[in-house]
Amino acid sequence: MINEADLVEALKEDEIAGAALDVYEFEPKMAEGLAALDNVVTVAHTGSATASARKNMAILAAQNLLAMLSNKQPPTCLNPEIYG
């Protein structure tokens, strides 16, 4: 999660070399000036729209589900404290 207004300033000041975004802080709006920067790439939720990415997402989802059904910690668990 980022604050887009702060990102715009960091990009303008060369504190950050560039940014690529497919989700925006206040969708569908973007922060003032973000889309005009040459060091920004934006897409509309299509960053994962490749056959390879979607295949890997499906595999990971299945691995998480199988682990949970076996009462094990899922590979991408964000809260490992709930699994013992």
In short:
33% of the residues lie in helices and 7% in strands.
Instruction: Extract low-pLDDT stretches.
Output: none
Q: Whole-number average pLDDT? A: 89
User: Main sheet, how many strands, which sense, barrel?
Assistant: 2 strands, parallel
Order of helices and strands: HEEH
Major sheet: arrangement of strands: 1-2
Overall outline: elongated
Q: What count of domains describes the coordinates?
A: 2
What gyration radius follows from the Cα positions, in whole Å? 18 Å
What's the number of helices? Answer: 2
Query: Strand content of the residues, in percent?
Result: 5-15%
Task: Report the end-to-end length measured between terminal Cα atoms.
Answer: 29 Å
Helix content: 25-40%
